Amino acid sequence: MTFEFEPAPRPALPILGRETVFPVRRIFCVGRNYAAHAREMGKDPDREPPFFFTKPADAIIAPGPVPYPPLTQDLHYEAELVVCLGQGGRDIPQTAALEHVFGYAVGNDLTRRDLQGEAKKMGRPWDMAKGFDSSAVIGPIGSVDKVGHLVQGAITLSVNGAEKQRGDLSQMIWSIPEVISILSTYVELAAGDLIMTGTPAGVGALVPGDLCKICIEGLPDLEMRMTG
């Protein structure tokens, strides 16, 4: 096969303690997966089944300097645990779901909240609010053989040293096995897929110059600074 032009390199994430990298295929995101966050978004978490949206794989950017995106006056942080799949499948049973997990990472689901709000009002897709360039800040992956399966533990986010988000992974409305199983009924999952599992309450705005730090027990901290 001869390409008309050189294809873009495949996005990849570093793996703690390994020289190899993790090739990223797709990024799925779970919407409103913490009850308190669902409530702050004006929704009733007890009545809503899980729903999913996506980011393009090349939206990934490593921790460090992150450019403030255009066309927004209200860029929000969202601290999230990222599940990294080492194998895929369709209609995966919950009892076998964790067998498909290669490891976990810390992520920040950056959101152009003003564009998202406008899209919601008009019944339009969220793509430009969620899937813009550098909207998926993701740290290195801790493989399961190193960090185990992260089912509980604190998840926090601070901006310029002030804590803004605090929750526990055990507070997810839909657990990681449930998320993997349900998502696999919609699409066939594959090795290299990432799942951003939702954010606790306390989302808010970032501006150029802000230093944002996310901590999840068992994984290295993620630090990023918004640039102008």
Task: Give the structure's gist in a few sentences.
With 228 residues, this protein is α+β, with helices and mostly antiparallel strands. It has helices at 35-40, 113-122, 127-130, 144-147, 176-186; strands at residues 12-14, 21-23, 27-30, 52-55, 60-61, 64-67, 75-77, 79-85, 101-109, 111-112, 136-138, 142-143, 154-159, 162-168, 194-196, 204-206, 211-216, 222-227. Helix content is 15%, strand content 34%.
What is the strand and helix layout of this fold?
Elements lengths: L11 E3 L6 E3 L3 E4 L4 H6 L11 E4 L4 E2 L2 E4 L7 E3 L1 E7 L15 E9 L1 E2 H10 L4 H4 L5 E3 L3 E2 H4 L6 E6 L2 E7 L7 H11 L7 E3 L7 E3 L4 E6 L5 E6 L1
Parallel strand pairs: 3-15, 5-11, 6-18
Antiparallel strand pairs: 1-2, 3-4, 7-10, 7-16, 8-9, 8-15, 9-11, 9-12, 13-14, 13-17, 17-18
Report on this structure.
The protein has helices at residues 35-40, 113-122, 127-130, 144-147, 176-186; strands at 12-14, 21-23, 27-30, 52-55, 60-61, 64-67, 75-77, 79-85, 101-109, 111-112, 136-138, 142-143, 154-159, 162-168, 194-196, 204-206, 211-216, 222-227. The protein has 228 residues and is of the alpha+beta class. The radius of gyration is 17 Å and the shape is globular. A hairpin with a 2-residue loop joins strand 13 (154-159) and strand 14. Helices cover 15% and strands 34% of the residues. The strands form 4 sheets. Strands 3, 4, 5, 8, 9, 11, 12 and 15 form an 8-stranded mixed β-sheet that branches. Strands 6-18-17-13-14 form a 5-stranded mixed β-sheet, with no helix packed on it. The protein has a 3-stranded antiparallel β-sheet with strand order 10-7-16. The mean pLDDT is 95.
